[in-house]
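Table S2 (text version). Query chain:
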Amino acid sequence: DSINIYRLSIGMWTLEQEPRFTNTNGIKLELVGVGLLIPIIPKSPIVTNERSFKNLLKKPLSERINGLNISTMGSWCDCKTNGLVAGLMAQIHREVNGISTVLYMNFTQKHNGLMLAMFNDSYKMNGLQIGLGNNGYRVNGLQIGLIGNHAYQMHGLQIGIYNMALDFKGLQLGIWNVNDKRKLPFINWSF
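Corresponding structure-token output:
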């Protein structure tokens, strides 16, 4: 059975755990959140291959949020959010359709829309990543990073000091640009 919440859901924090089968339509508010702990995790929680990604998607979702998912420090949620995800420090989510913004670290397995943080990491990214450094394994859209951008599969535009994409279609603008065809300073392309 699912729990359906309309308007406002308030809690202290969310951790990835056994599925709760919760649907929030409105605002999910975490008063504290676990965002302060996320920067000390030993490695990125983002999957690195298609098989792992497909296995992850087979697991039942813990939560669905339609609207706003707001956490003071940030959340670690095995959830799908359609709308806005916002926190102060860092966050980890399974899927976001909309905007995901936090000051420091932003991890989303599958993201459609805008990711905005100092460091963004996603397996499948469709849209725009803006930060000091961005990482994406399958990106369709735009990555803008001051320090650098990395993508396994990238279709779109990368802007940063250092840009790298292994399976690339698009344009790279930066001090050093690497794709599957060549390595060039300032501008690189592959169509």
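Notes on Table S2: Residues 13 and 33 are 4 Å apart (CA to CA). The radius of gyration is 17 Å.
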